[in-house]
Amino acid sequence: MRHGIDWNKAQALVAAERAAFTANNPRSQALAAGAAEHLLFGVPMHWMRDWSTPFPLTVAEASGARFRDADGHEYLDFCLGDTGAMFGHSPAPVARAVAAQAARGYTAMLPSEDAARVGALLARRFGMPRWQFALSASDANRFVLRWLRAATGRGKILVFNGCYHGTVDDVFVDLEGGAPVQRASLLGQVHDLTAHTVVVEFNDLAALDAALAAGDVACVLAEPVMTNIGMVLPQAGYWEAAQRIMRKHGALLVLDETHTISSGPGGYARAHGLEPDALVVGKPIGGGLPCAAYGFTEELAGRVERAKRDAPPGHSGVGTTLTANMFTLAAMRANLEEVMTDAAYARMFALAALLADGLRGVIASLGLPWCVTQVGARTEFQFAPRPPLNGSEAGAALDGELEQVIHLYLLNRGLLITPFHNMLLVCPDTAEEDIARLLAAFDGCARALRCPRVFRSSAPPPGSCRP
């Protein structure tokens, strides 16, 4: 038995759901066939083939917590662009700001009036006094690593096993048998990443101490809560002790809050008293437009500026011509001032708690060996009896086959969740009845999949409900 599921039922269910999806979405199927003529993998970005559907679902419009597809079906969106639209699709203040800016220019490689205002808003919100911008969190993380290596004179970085920080090459290193290995999925990489990237398990203070002891690590790049391999929470006291270890060995702390901005208006660090040296926040802060920002403490900002002044003239490898363009800065200002409010977060937290409690209730009522984790507005169910302690445990709980069955079942009932794992987001426009509808569908799917022996024994005889 795998995760308490009857896999004969699962195979029959996914076949029926695939047939239903195909029958109900002829327009999306036709559009997908046309796109295949000119788009690699038939989609504008190959991740769009990673959904559970037989062919890509084409979106026609999106607003608030809902979107409509090309065949006219409406969906409740609990994916929200995998955090890109965390505060809802097309927030009205952002829509007004970008419409106004569209008549005043998009980009000039010069600062707009919004630039200083956005910097001040970020400083007040996150506590970092000095800021720069990027077009994505991937770029922001990449730029921060360059700045910090230059500022410290140290070449190595440390990440946690199973981490995700966008498409930064340096972070595609995992632990296998206690040794660092380059992630096999990384395409076209010709350099040995393990020469400059150290990797340890999250929540392991002894391993962190040992890895930093040589004094050659410029910084630790981390999400304060791991979110992309399945959510992994820090154990009580972990970050306080980890920061002491980093200071002892002279390593800086960079927190990637792109996902954990779900924790509050100032992110997880502000909510829990962490003191990073640098902070990155990506896609949510622009209301859905491509943008990111990264901030430094005053002391680190001084070191970074000295490193740039002391370097020979020429391209630093940091920034692009579209970085901090007028269009995205207008969106960021509107989103920070009018959308990412305390009231919005209070509503989202209440809705997420309702969702998390409801998921736990369904799981408990069916006796499934699954758990639920919540980080502010972000909730996830995992195929493990208790929340994982590190990336290895979280990775072991992943089951792509089971995820796709559940995701497709929900999608066919007008409910979208994140394709890569079982993460669900709520936004200010999500309603309590939306959550009730999701929970009812989740209960129906889990009942359809559950092995009847889960109530009788935690170790069924060989052959029972086998995969």
TrEMBL record:
Cofactor(s) needed: pyridoxal 5'-phosphate
Sorted UniProt keywords: Pyridoxal phosphate
Origin superkingdom: Bacteria
InterPro entries: Aminotrans_3, PyrdxlP-dep_Trfase, PyrdxlP-dep_Trfase_major, PyrdxlP-dep_Trfase_small
SUPFAM superfamilies the record matches: PLP-dependent transferases
Listed GO MF terms: pyridoxal phosphate binding; transaminase activity
Keyword Magnesium tagged: no
Transmembrane spans: none
Family, as annotated: Belongs to the class-III pyridoxal-phosphate-dependent aminotransferase family.
Protein name, UniProt field: Glutamate-1-semialdehyde 2,1-aminomutase
Species of the source: Pseudoduganella namucuonensis
